[in-house]
């Protein structure tokens, strides 16, 4: 029996087989968790259906959800409540800034609209899911998890306004944890090292970033979505019952280095 047996999770953020959310779903399913999924738009329904089938999950529990819409977020929990009498886990693996925000210098690229959209989709949406999901999660040792990146703490070239959005997301983890702790709900984040997913495709110089991470991390390599998935399964399970409000790095140790290694 897996360490998540009897748990029910909603996973937001599957877009492909390479998504971090896919690695999380694989680990959850292996550990005996039941999973419902959302998908951003109809274009992604096929992918998410295939994943749910492959993991032996109920393909009725797939819901459209563009997180910029309060109505769509609300509708997910209304629909899920017709199948499940409660929910133990919400995974938020969503990030977005308009493409032109992620190129060139920060001052040159940042705009009021680019700032608004990146913070809405990448940070507010975590609070919005917590707010809408809370009624189904109360009274059952629940856990919420989001995905962040080191650029919340240290300036990473080209990550630009997404770095500000991740800083806001990490503060959101702490405020949610402080608020929901009394209800038995834990809230954490994983700060993942760079991984080649759809969200990384087309970022100029991403390959260079990966090869830098291979040289600069203590483990001399990048991380996989399976490794992020395993840490996510731990953090969302009762094994992590004493952990809340934390940002856990799954980055082969890269963040602890002050200088790059030379072999
Ligand atoms: P991905 O492209 O597979 O996943 C991003 C997801 O965000 C997609 O499923 C997409 O549908 C969803 N999304 C974007 N806008 C949305 C909206 N308006 N409504 C609903 N969903 C929306 O890429 P990924 O790398 O798996 O990214 C997942 C998370 O991990 C993001 O928060 C990202 O910032 C974070 N992260 C990624 C890396 C990396 O190097 N890949 C590193 C650290 C953190
Ligand atoms: O969080 C991310 C990527 C987030 C992301 C990616 C895109 C690409 C497509 C947000 N919005 C968009 N918008 C699009 O139109 N990462 C941690 C991966 C990443 O992205 C970078 C990185 C790293 C690492 C961008 C610049 C520099 C480093």
Description:
The protein has 263 residues and is α/β, with parallel strands linked by helices. Helix content is 40%, strand content 13%. The chain contains eight helices and seven strands, in the order E-H-E-H-E-H-E-H-H-E-H-E-H-H-E. Strands 3-2-1-4-5-6-7 form a seven-stranded parallel sheet, with helices on both faces. Nicotinamide-adenine-dinucleotide is lined by residues 13-16, 19-21, 40, 65-68, 93-96, 121, 147, 149, 192, 194-195, 197-200.
Write the layout of secondary structure elements.
Elements: E1 8-12, H1 20-30, E2 34-39, H2 45-54, E3 62-64, H3 70-80, E4 89-92, H4 106-109, H5 112-137, E5 143-148, H6 161-180, E6 186-192, H7 206-216, H8 225-236, E7 247-250
Parallel strand pairs: 1-2, 1-4, 2-3, 4-5, 5-6, 6-7
Bound molecules: nicotinamide-adenine-dinucleotide and ligand 0WE.
Can you tell me the residue ranges where pLDDT is under 50 for at least 5 consecutive residues? none
Average the pLDDT over all residues and give the rounded result: 97
Number of helices: 8
Secondary-structure element series: EHEHEHEHHEHEHHE
- How much of the residues is beta strand, in percent? 5-15%
Helix vs. strand class: alpha/beta
Got a strand count?
7
